[in-house]
Amino acid sequence: FRRSSCSTKVQPPKLQEEFGAKSLVPLKERRRRQAHMKTWRKMLTAVGIGEMPTMPFTPEGIRQIATGFRQGKLQGKVYRSGHNYLCSARREHQLQGFEWTQQHQLAAQEAFQLMRKKLGPPARARSFILEKVAESYALGISPRTTIKEPHASSCMGSQYMLRSAELAEMNCEDVMISWQERWLSIRVTSSKTDVSGRGCRIRWHCTCGMGTGLSPPTRATSWMTCPFHTGCHIAMRVHGAVPEQAPFSRIPGGQRPFIMNRDGSRVTSAQVQKFLEELNDKRSIEDVLMEETPCAKFGGHSMRRSGTQHWHRLGLPDQLLRRL
Predict the structure, then answer these.
(1) 42 vs 73: CA distance, rounded Å
(2) Closest listed residue to residue 298, CA positions, set 268, 264, 275, 317
(3) 303 and 164 in contact (C-beta within 8 Å)?
(4) How far is 236 from 48, CA to CA, in rounded Å?
(5) What is the pLDDT of residues 5-17, one digit of tens each?
(6) pLDDT digits (tens, 9 = 90+) for 235-263
(7) What is the C-alpha separation between 254 and 63, in angstroms, rounded?
């Protein structure tokens, strides 16, 4: 996280938002707010008040939009996180200089309760077993996908306990490898739990004891469950990295995505979800001992949940798992 060095003067909150003070508001947070306001404007149209100005909004308008989120007025989707959109809209309302009255606050509290009431259990990400994904790779079982090295990519995301969005945002410059000490370090630059946008580094050492060269697919059950060798496999096969004698080296490519599609674009959560679902149809990768809810499905959190279960089975302390 870098602060701008062009000026030491701190602008008021309203000016920060108007002129886009990037040093104070992380890019990920600005994109999230913009996406929330875009959905908010769509909901205004869906509930029949789209002809009115977006701001300021009235207490009655808050109730109407909350009802729209609850009833699935927008594309038939029921938004469990509708309160997040309301918070972003309230912030935009105040930044534009409009007063947030007690009536607004009461209407917002009623909206929060309405959007959360009797929605049933939340959807849960379905988990998979890394060893079964590695076995599928060793047997040559792979559905059609545009993701390069999809088996290794999904295993690496699980080993580092990343969400799909965090894995997709990782660039080549965020990955460092020590070929001599046999560790691989990644920098997570964006995460929904990192509100300050500082990022963090996660380092894993080799856990399988194999060599540093390209490992044969027939031994994938050994090296594809190792966070060091899985990352090295992607670095060598996708980005042409070569083992060096230097203490550590960065992956060539700069800001190019580390996990990418064949056309060089970033992968999406939908692509990861589709790959896992189709791979599971071809050869089961689920944990038969894990009791899943009926609404569980593969999604953006599947790798994170699968990795947590994987390391827990291997005896990693719970405190360290929570920190990761």
Answers:
(1) 10
(2) 275
(3) yes
(4) 54
(5) 333 333 344 434 4
(6) 999 988 888 766 677 888 888 999 999 99
(7) 48
Q: Which residue in 264, 297, 268, 265 sits closest to 281, CA to CA?
A: 297
Q: How many CB atoms lie within 10 A of CB 166?
A: 22
205/185 Cα distance (integer angstroms)? 9
Question: pLDDT tens digits for 17-54?
Answer: 444 444 466 776 777 788 888 887 888 788 776 555 56
Diameter over CA atoms, the chain = 67
CB count within 10 Å of CB 314 equals 9
Q: How many helices (H) and strands (E) does the chain have?
A: 13, 4
Structure tokens at 75: 């594309």
Block residue for tokens 């990644």: 186
Q: How far apart are CA 67 and CA 176, in angstroms?
A: 49
Amino acid in position 41: R
Q: Locate the DSSP E strands across the chain.
A: 175-178, 183-188, 200-205, 249-250
Other C-beta atoms within 10 Å of 49: how many?
A: 18
238 neighbors 148 (Cβ within 8 angstroms):
yes
Distance CA 151, CA 54 (A): 45
Helix, strand and coil percent figures for the chain, each rounded to 5? 45, 10, 45
Pairing of strands 175-178, 200-205: unpaired
Closest CA to 202 of 222, 176, 164: 176
pLDDT digits (tens, 9 = 90+) for 122-180: 667 888 999 999 999 999 999 999 999 999 999 999 999 998 888 888 999 899 999 88
The answer to whether residues 312 and 293 touch, using CB atoms and an 8 Å cutoff, is no
Taken in order 281, 282, 285, 291, is the CA torsion positive or negative?
positive
Give the predicted TM-score (pTM) of the model: 0.66
